[in-house]
Amino acid sequence: MAGMGDTMEGQGMITREECAALDAADPLAAFRGEFALPPGVIYLDGNSLGALPVRTPERVRAVVEREWGRELIRSWNDAGWFEQPYRLGRRIAPLVGAAPQELVVCDTTSVNLFKVLAAALRLRPGRSAVLGDRAAFPTDLYIAEGVTGLVPGARSVLIDPAELDAHLDGDVAAVVLSHVDYRTGELLDMPGITARVRAAGALMIWDVCHSVGALPVELSASGADFAVGCTYKYLNGGPGSPAFLYVAERHLAAGPSQPLSGWFGHARPFAFEPGYQPRDGIGRFLTSSPSLLGQAALEAALDVWERADRDAVRAKSLALTDLFIGLVEDLDGVEVVTPREHARRGSQVALRHADGYPVVRALIARGVIGDFRAPDLMRFGFTPLYLSHTEVWDAARHLARVLDSGEWKDERFSRRGEVT
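^ Kynureninase, sequence as received from the core. Prediction below:
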Protein backbone atom coordinates (compact mmCIF):
# COMPACT_ATOMS: atom_id res chain seq x y z
CA MET A 1 0.00 0.00 0.00
CA ALA A 2 1.61 3.22 -1.10
CA GLY A 3 1.02 6.71 0.12
CA MET A 4 -1.72 6.26 2.74
CA GLY A 5 -3.08 9.56 1.46
CA ASP A 6 -5.77 10.02 -1.15
CA THR A 7 -4.36 7.50 -3.64
CA MET A 8 -4.11 3.77 -3.08
CA GLU A 9 -2.45 1.08 -5.11
CA GLY A 10 -4.68 -1.28 -7.06
CA GLN A 11 -7.61 -0.49 -9.32
CA GLY A 12 -5.37 1.68 -11.50
CA MET A 13 -4.30 3.94 -8.62
CA ILE A 14 -7.90 4.98 -7.99
CA THR A 15 -8.35 8.04 -5.80
CA ARG A 16 -10.93 8.82 -3.18
CA GLU A 17 -12.11 11.67 -5.38
CA GLU A 18 -12.78 9.22 -8.20
CA CYS A 19 -14.78 7.07 -5.78
CA ALA A 20 -16.78 10.16 -4.80
CA ALA A 21 -17.53 10.75 -8.49
CA LEU A 22 -18.83 7.19 -8.76
CA ASP A 23 -21.07 7.83 -5.77
CA ALA A 24 -22.42 11.01 -7.33
CA ALA A 25 -23.49 9.02 -10.40
CA ASP A 26 -24.83 6.06 -8.42
CA PRO A 27 -28.49 5.32 -9.34
CA LEU A 28 -28.97 3.69 -5.92
CA ALA A 29 -27.49 6.54 -3.88
CA ALA A 30 -30.88 7.81 -2.67
CA PHE A 31 -31.53 4.54 -0.86
CA ARG A 32 -28.81 5.40 1.67
CA GLY A 33 -31.32 7.68 3.40
CA GLU A 34 -33.68 4.74 3.90
CA PHE A 35 -31.41 3.29 6.59
CA ALA A 36 -30.51 4.39 10.12
CA LEU A 37 -26.74 4.01 9.99
CA PRO A 38 -24.71 5.28 12.97
CA PRO A 39 -22.28 8.10 12.16
CA GLY A 40 -18.61 7.21 11.91
CA VAL A 41 -19.29 3.56 11.09
CA ILE A 42 -18.51 1.76 7.83
CA TYR A 43 -20.82 -1.23 7.97
CA LEU A 44 -19.47 -4.25 6.10
CA ASP A 45 -21.46 -6.92 7.91
CA GLY A 46 -24.82 -6.71 6.16
CA ASN A 47 -24.22 -10.28 5.01
CA SER A 48 -24.73 -11.25 8.65
CA LEU A 49 -27.25 -8.67 9.89
CA GLY A 50 -28.69 -5.93 7.71
CA ALA A 51 -29.01 -2.31 8.80
CA LEU A 52 -32.19 -0.85 10.28
CA PRO A 53 -34.59 0.75 7.77
CA VAL A 54 -35.73 4.13 9.08
CA ARG A 55 -39.42 3.25 8.69
CA THR A 56 -39.21 0.01 10.66
CA PRO A 57 -39.69 1.48 14.17
CA GLU A 58 -42.83 3.31 13.04
CA ARG A 59 -44.31 0.17 11.47
CA VAL A 60 -43.56 -2.00 14.51
CA ARG A 61 -44.95 0.72 16.80
CA ALA A 62 -48.18 0.76 14.79
CA VAL A 63 -48.60 -2.99 15.25
CA VAL A 64 -47.87 -2.75 18.98
CA GLU A 65 -49.90 0.33 19.80
CA ARG A 66 -52.76 0.21 17.34
CA GLU A 67 -53.23 -3.32 16.01
CA TRP A 68 -52.40 -5.08 19.28
CA GLY A 69 -52.92 -2.32 21.84
CA ARG A 70 -56.27 -0.93 20.67
CA GLU A 71 -57.72 -3.47 18.26
CA LEU A 72 -56.61 -6.49 20.29
CA ILE A 73 -57.73 -9.85 18.93
CA ARG A 74 -59.82 -8.20 16.20
CA SER A 75 -56.57 -7.55 14.30
CA TRP A 76 -56.34 -11.19 13.25
CA ASN A 77 -59.09 -10.30 10.81
CA ASP A 78 -59.20 -6.51 10.58
CA ALA A 79 -55.41 -6.00 10.22
CA GLY A 80 -54.94 -9.13 8.13
CA TRP A 81 -52.74 -11.01 10.59
CA PHE A 82 -53.97 -14.37 9.30
CA GLU A 83 -52.91 -13.55 5.76
CA GLN A 84 -49.57 -11.99 6.61
CA PRO A 85 -47.41 -15.10 5.86
CA TYR A 86 -48.88 -15.26 2.36
CA ARG A 87 -48.82 -11.51 1.76
CA LEU A 88 -45.14 -11.26 2.66
CA GLY A 89 -44.42 -14.35 0.60
CA ARG A 90 -45.92 -12.70 -2.46
CA ARG A 91 -43.70 -9.66 -1.89
CA ILE A 92 -40.50 -11.69 -1.58
CA ALA A 93 -41.31 -13.97 -4.52
CA PRO A 94 -40.03 -11.53 -7.20
CA LEU A 95 -36.71 -11.23 -5.39
CA VAL A 96 -36.06 -14.95 -5.81
CA GLY A 97 -37.74 -15.55 -9.15
CA ALA A 98 -40.71 -17.43 -7.74
CA ALA A 99 -44.42 -17.33 -8.53
CA PRO A 100 -46.52 -15.70 -5.77
CA GLN A 101 -48.17 -18.98 -4.82
CA GLU A 102 -44.82 -20.79 -4.42
CA LEU A 103 -43.48 -18.90 -1.42
CA VAL A 104 -44.55 -18.27 2.17
CA VAL A 105 -42.92 -16.44 5.10
CA CYS A 106 -42.82 -18.40 8.34
CA ASP A 107 -40.68 -19.83 11.13
CA THR A 108 -36.86 -19.89 10.85
CA THR A 109 -34.45 -21.09 8.19
CA SER A 110 -33.64 -24.17 10.26
CA VAL A 111 -37.28 -25.10 10.81
CA ASN A 112 -38.12 -24.52 7.16
CA LEU A 113 -35.21 -26.64 6.00
CA PHE A 114 -36.45 -29.43 8.26
CA LYS A 115 -39.87 -29.22 6.63
CA VAL A 116 -38.77 -29.16 2.99
CA LEU A 117 -36.07 -31.81 3.47
CA ALA A 118 -38.57 -34.16 5.09
CA ALA A 119 -41.00 -33.47 2.26
CA ALA A 120 -38.30 -34.20 -0.30
CA LEU A 121 -37.51 -37.57 1.27
CA ARG A 122 -41.19 -38.48 1.18
CA LEU A 123 -41.33 -37.55 -2.49
CA ARG A 124 -38.47 -39.94 -3.27
CA PRO A 125 -39.37 -43.24 -1.58
CA GLY A 126 -36.75 -45.90 -2.08
CA ARG A 127 -33.92 -43.38 -2.05
CA SER A 128 -32.08 -42.76 1.19
CA ALA A 129 -29.16 -40.35 0.72
CA VAL A 130 -29.16 -36.58 1.25
CA LEU A 131 -26.07 -34.86 -0.15
CA GLY A 132 -24.77 -31.66 1.43
CA ASP A 133 -21.68 -29.47 1.32
CA ARG A 134 -19.40 -30.45 4.18
CA ALA A 135 -18.37 -26.78 4.52
CA ALA A 136 -21.95 -25.42 4.53
CA PHE A 137 -23.30 -23.26 7.31
CA PRO A 138 -23.66 -25.69 10.22
CA THR A 139 -27.43 -25.45 10.61
CA ASP A 140 -27.88 -27.00 7.16
CA LEU A 141 -25.68 -29.93 8.17
CA TYR A 142 -27.28 -30.36 11.57
CA ILE A 143 -30.82 -30.29 10.19
CA ALA A 144 -29.95 -32.82 7.47
CA GLU A 145 -28.44 -35.05 10.12
CA GLY A 146 -31.53 -34.68 12.29
CA VAL A 147 -34.02 -35.38 9.50
CA THR A 148 -32.21 -38.43 8.15
CA GLY A 149 -31.85 -39.72 11.70
CA LEU A 150 -35.64 -39.89 11.95
CA VAL A 151 -36.07 -41.85 8.71
CA PRO A 152 -35.07 -45.53 8.85
CA GLY A 153 -32.23 -46.20 6.42
CA ALA A 154 -31.75 -42.55 5.46
CA ARG A 155 -28.30 -40.98 5.68
CA SER A 156 -26.66 -37.60 5.33
CA VAL A 157 -23.59 -37.60 3.06
CA LEU A 158 -21.20 -34.65 3.16
CA ILE A 159 -19.31 -33.84 -0.02
CA ASP A 160 -17.37 -31.13 -1.81
CA PRO A 161 -19.77 -29.54 -4.36
CA ALA A 162 -17.02 -29.82 -6.99
CA GLU A 163 -17.38 -33.61 -6.66
CA LEU A 164 -21.18 -33.62 -6.86
CA ASP A 165 -21.45 -35.65 -10.08
CA ALA A 166 -19.43 -38.50 -8.61
CA HIS A 167 -22.04 -38.90 -5.86
CA LEU A 168 -25.25 -38.55 -7.91
CA ASP A 169 -26.39 -42.14 -8.03
CA GLY A 170 -29.79 -43.80 -7.82
CA ASP A 171 -29.82 -43.66 -4.02
CA VAL A 172 -29.73 -39.86 -3.75
CA ALA A 173 -33.10 -38.42 -2.76
CA ALA A 174 -32.11 -34.77 -2.38
CA VAL A 175 -29.19 -32.36 -2.54
CA VAL A 176 -28.93 -29.35 -0.22
CA LEU A 177 -26.53 -26.57 -1.21
CA SER A 178 -26.02 -22.89 -0.40
CA HIS A 179 -26.32 -20.59 -3.40
CA VAL A 180 -23.53 -18.44 -1.96
CA ASP A 181 -20.86 -19.92 0.34
CA TYR A 182 -21.15 -18.11 3.67
CA ARG A 183 -17.39 -18.30 4.23
CA THR A 184 -15.86 -17.46 0.86
CA GLY A 185 -18.65 -15.65 -0.98
CA GLU A 186 -18.46 -18.11 -3.88
CA LEU A 187 -21.62 -18.15 -6.01
CA LEU A 188 -22.69 -21.56 -7.31
CA ASP A 189 -24.24 -22.22 -10.70
CA MET A 190 -27.88 -22.67 -9.69
CA PRO A 191 -29.31 -23.63 -13.11
CA GLY A 192 -26.45 -25.97 -14.02
CA ILE A 193 -26.33 -27.81 -10.70
CA THR A 194 -30.10 -28.07 -10.47
CA ALA A 195 -30.28 -29.59 -13.95
CA ARG A 196 -27.68 -32.23 -13.08
CA VAL A 197 -29.38 -33.13 -9.81
CA ARG A 198 -32.80 -33.46 -11.39
CA ALA A 199 -31.38 -35.47 -14.30
CA ALA A 200 -30.20 -37.97 -11.69
CA GLY A 201 -33.73 -38.26 -10.33
CA ALA A 202 -33.02 -36.35 -7.12
CA LEU A 203 -34.59 -33.17 -5.77
CA MET A 204 -32.70 -29.88 -5.44
CA ILE A 205 -32.98 -27.76 -2.29
CA TRP A 206 -31.27 -24.36 -2.27
CA ASP A 207 -30.33 -22.24 0.73
CA VAL A 208 -30.48 -18.65 -0.56
CA CYS A 209 -29.75 -16.87 2.73
CA HIS A 210 -26.59 -15.23 1.38
CA SER A 211 -27.95 -14.32 -2.04
CA VAL A 212 -31.52 -13.01 -1.63
CA GLY A 213 -31.36 -9.22 -1.74
CA ALA A 214 -27.76 -9.20 -2.95
CA LEU A 215 -28.20 -10.54 -6.48
CA PRO A 216 -30.97 -11.78 -8.76
CA VAL A 217 -32.11 -15.29 -7.83
CA GLU A 218 -34.16 -17.33 -10.31
CA LEU A 219 -35.59 -20.34 -8.50
CA SER A 220 -38.39 -21.18 -10.94
CA ALA A 221 -36.36 -20.60 -14.09
CA SER A 222 -33.55 -22.73 -12.67
CA GLY A 223 -35.90 -25.63 -11.99
CA ALA A 224 -35.32 -25.66 -8.23
CA ASP A 225 -37.57 -28.00 -6.26
CA PHE A 226 -37.36 -26.34 -2.86
CA ALA A 227 -35.56 -23.41 -1.26
CA VAL A 228 -35.20 -21.74 2.12
CA GLY A 229 -33.92 -18.31 3.02
CA CYS A 230 -33.66 -15.75 5.78
CA THR A 231 -34.68 -12.09 5.76
CA TYR A 232 -32.29 -10.51 8.28
CA LYS A 233 -29.22 -10.22 6.07
CA TYR A 234 -29.46 -8.30 2.80
CA LEU A 235 -33.25 -7.90 3.14
CA ASN A 236 -32.82 -5.95 6.42
CA GLY A 237 -35.76 -7.57 8.22
CA GLY A 238 -34.09 -7.31 11.63
CA PRO A 239 -32.46 -9.75 14.07
CA GLY A 240 -34.36 -13.02 14.14
CA SER A 241 -36.80 -11.88 11.47
CA PRO A 242 -38.93 -14.66 9.96
CA ALA A 243 -37.58 -16.87 7.21
CA PHE A 244 -39.27 -18.10 4.04
CA LEU A 245 -39.60 -21.29 2.07
CA TYR A 246 -40.22 -22.02 -1.58
CA VAL A 247 -41.89 -25.06 -3.10
CA ALA A 248 -42.12 -25.43 -6.88
CA GLU A 249 -45.68 -25.38 -8.20
CA ARG A 250 -45.30 -28.85 -9.71
CA HIS A 251 -44.76 -30.29 -6.22
CA LEU A 252 -47.56 -28.28 -4.63
CA ALA A 253 -49.94 -29.75 -7.18
CA ALA A 254 -48.93 -33.23 -6.00
CA GLY A 255 -49.78 -32.38 -2.39
CA PRO A 256 -46.44 -32.95 -0.60
CA SER A 257 -46.53 -33.58 3.13
CA GLN A 258 -44.27 -32.17 5.81
CA PRO A 259 -43.98 -33.49 9.37
CA LEU A 260 -44.59 -30.32 11.42
CA SER A 261 -48.34 -30.53 11.08
CA GLY A 262 -49.36 -27.60 13.23
CA TRP A 263 -52.77 -25.99 13.31
CA PHE A 264 -51.89 -23.11 10.99
CA GLY A 265 -51.27 -25.59 8.18
CA HIS A 266 -54.63 -27.29 8.69
CA ALA A 267 -57.25 -26.99 5.97
CA ARG A 268 -59.83 -25.89 8.56
CA PRO A 269 -57.91 -24.53 11.57
CA PHE A 270 -61.05 -23.32 13.34
CA ALA A 271 -62.90 -26.59 13.02
CA PHE A 272 -60.70 -27.84 15.90
CA GLU A 273 -60.81 -31.38 14.57
CA PRO A 274 -58.65 -34.12 16.14
CA GLY A 275 -57.29 -35.33 12.79
CA TYR A 276 -54.93 -33.38 10.59
CA GLN A 277 -55.81 -32.44 7.02
CA PRO A 278 -53.31 -30.12 5.30
CA ARG A 279 -54.24 -27.02 3.38
CA ASP A 280 -53.95 -26.91 -0.36
CA GLY A 281 -50.95 -25.14 -1.85
CA ILE A 282 -48.05 -23.51 -0.03
CA GLY A 283 -50.17 -23.13 3.13
CA ARG A 284 -49.57 -26.77 3.98
CA PHE A 285 -46.02 -25.77 4.92
CA LEU A 286 -47.21 -23.44 7.67
CA THR A 287 -47.02 -24.73 11.22
CA SER A 288 -47.94 -22.21 13.89
CA SER A 289 -49.04 -18.63 14.52
CA PRO A 290 -46.75 -16.10 12.83
CA SER A 291 -44.46 -13.76 14.73
CA LEU A 292 -46.37 -10.57 13.96
CA LEU A 293 -43.82 -8.10 15.32
CA GLY A 294 -41.02 -9.70 13.32
CA GLN A 295 -43.20 -9.77 10.24
CA ALA A 296 -44.07 -6.09 10.72
CA ALA A 297 -40.37 -5.20 10.67
CA LEU A 298 -39.90 -7.27 7.52
CA GLU A 299 -42.89 -5.55 5.92
CA ALA A 300 -41.22 -2.16 6.36
CA ALA A 301 -37.97 -3.47 4.86
CA LEU A 302 -39.79 -4.83 1.82
CA ASP A 303 -41.23 -1.38 1.19
CA VAL A 304 -37.66 -0.38 0.32
CA TRP A 305 -36.96 -3.43 -1.81
CA GLU A 306 -40.01 -2.93 -3.97
CA ARG A 307 -38.46 0.32 -5.22
CA ALA A 308 -34.99 -1.10 -5.87
CA ASP A 309 -33.92 -2.42 -9.26
CA ARG A 310 -32.40 -5.89 -8.86
CA ASP A 311 -30.06 -5.50 -11.82
CA ALA A 312 -28.77 -2.17 -10.50
CA VAL A 313 -28.19 -3.77 -7.11
CA ARG A 314 -26.16 -6.56 -8.70
CA ALA A 315 -24.14 -4.17 -10.85
CA LYS A 316 -23.21 -2.05 -7.83
CA SER A 317 -22.44 -5.12 -5.74
CA LEU A 318 -19.92 -6.28 -8.33
CA ALA A 319 -18.45 -2.78 -8.64
CA LEU A 320 -17.97 -2.48 -4.86
CA THR A 321 -16.44 -5.91 -4.49
CA ASP A 322 -14.18 -5.32 -7.52
CA LEU A 323 -13.04 -2.07 -5.94
CA PHE A 324 -12.29 -3.63 -2.56
CA ILE A 325 -10.46 -6.61 -4.03
CA GLY A 326 -8.31 -4.32 -6.14
CA LEU A 327 -7.43 -2.16 -3.16
CA VAL A 328 -6.48 -4.95 -0.73
CA GLU A 329 -5.11 -7.78 -2.87
CA ASP A 330 -1.48 -6.64 -2.52
CA LEU A 331 -1.53 -6.12 1.25
CA ASP A 332 1.08 -8.13 3.13
CA GLY A 333 -0.23 -11.40 4.53
CA VAL A 334 -3.60 -11.09 2.79
CA GLU A 335 -5.03 -13.68 0.40
CA VAL A 336 -8.25 -12.97 -1.49
CA VAL A 337 -10.37 -16.12 -1.18
CA THR A 338 -13.49 -14.89 -2.97
CA PRO A 339 -13.58 -15.72 -6.70
CA ARG A 340 -12.59 -12.89 -9.04
CA GLU A 341 -15.04 -13.99 -11.76
CA HIS A 342 -18.34 -12.14 -11.51
CA ALA A 343 -20.35 -15.26 -12.32
CA ARG A 344 -18.85 -16.99 -9.28
CA ARG A 345 -19.07 -14.16 -6.74
CA GLY A 346 -21.80 -13.21 -4.30
CA SER A 347 -21.78 -9.86 -2.50
CA GLN A 348 -19.02 -10.39 0.03
CA VAL A 349 -15.23 -10.56 -0.02
CA ALA A 350 -13.39 -13.04 2.17
CA LEU A 351 -9.73 -12.46 2.95
CA ARG A 352 -7.46 -15.04 4.51
CA HIS A 353 -4.95 -13.79 7.09
CA ALA A 354 -3.11 -15.85 9.69
CA ASP A 355 -4.13 -13.34 12.38
CA GLY A 356 -7.55 -12.51 10.98
CA TYR A 357 -9.34 -12.45 14.33
CA PRO A 358 -7.36 -9.63 15.98
CA VAL A 359 -7.21 -7.77 12.65
CA VAL A 360 -11.02 -7.75 12.42
CA ARG A 361 -11.32 -6.61 16.02
CA ALA A 362 -8.84 -3.79 15.38
CA LEU A 363 -10.92 -2.73 12.38
CA ILE A 364 -14.10 -2.75 14.46
CA ALA A 365 -12.37 -0.50 16.99
CA ARG A 366 -11.80 1.92 14.10
CA GLY A 367 -15.48 1.81 13.13
CA VAL A 368 -15.10 -0.60 10.21
CA ILE A 369 -17.41 -3.50 11.03
CA GLY A 370 -16.71 -6.81 9.33
CA ASP A 371 -16.58 -10.27 10.86
CA PHE A 372 -14.42 -13.36 11.24
CA ARG A 373 -14.89 -17.06 10.57
CA ALA A 374 -12.48 -19.59 11.98
CA PRO A 375 -9.80 -20.45 11.38
CA ASP A 376 -8.51 -17.47 9.37
CA LEU A 377 -11.20 -15.78 7.25
CA MET A 378 -12.09 -12.10 7.47
CA ARG A 379 -15.49 -11.48 5.86
CA PHE A 380 -16.69 -8.18 4.45
CA GLY A 381 -20.23 -7.84 3.12
CA PHE A 382 -21.18 -5.24 0.52
CA THR A 383 -24.77 -4.04 0.66
CA PRO A 384 -25.43 -1.85 -2.39
CA LEU A 385 -28.45 -0.01 -1.01
CA TYR A 386 -26.51 1.74 1.74
CA LEU A 387 -22.80 1.36 1.04
CA SER A 388 -20.79 3.85 -1.02
CA HIS A 389 -17.62 3.61 -3.09
CA THR A 390 -15.87 6.11 -0.80
CA GLU A 391 -16.69 3.96 2.23
CA VAL A 392 -15.15 0.97 0.49
CA TRP A 393 -12.04 3.07 -0.25
CA ASP A 394 -11.88 4.22 3.38
CA ALA A 395 -12.34 0.66 4.68
CA ALA A 396 -9.45 -0.57 2.55
CA ARG A 397 -7.27 2.27 3.86
CA HIS A 398 -8.13 1.36 7.46
CA LEU A 399 -7.22 -2.26 6.78
CA ALA A 400 -3.89 -1.20 5.31
CA ARG A 401 -3.12 0.94 8.33
CA VAL A 402 -4.10 -1.78 10.81
CA LEU A 403 -1.74 -4.21 9.07
CA ASP A 404 1.13 -1.77 8.47
CA SER A 405 1.08 -0.32 11.99
CA GLY A 406 0.77 -3.68 13.73
CA GLU A 407 -1.97 -2.29 15.98
CA TRP A 408 -3.81 -5.59 15.69
CA LYS A 409 -1.10 -7.02 17.96
CA ASP A 410 -2.54 -5.14 20.93
CA GLU A 411 -3.55 -7.80 23.44
CA ARG A 412 -7.07 -6.39 23.78
CA PHE A 413 -7.76 -7.50 20.20
CA SER A 414 -6.45 -11.02 20.68
CA ARG A 415 -8.73 -11.89 23.62
CA ARG A 416 -11.29 -14.28 22.23
CA GLY A 417 -14.91 -13.23 22.14
CA GLU A 418 -17.51 -13.52 19.47
CA VAL A 419 -17.15 -11.64 16.19
CA THR A 420 -20.45 -12.52 14.57
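Residues 1-5 have pLDDT under 50 and may be disordered.
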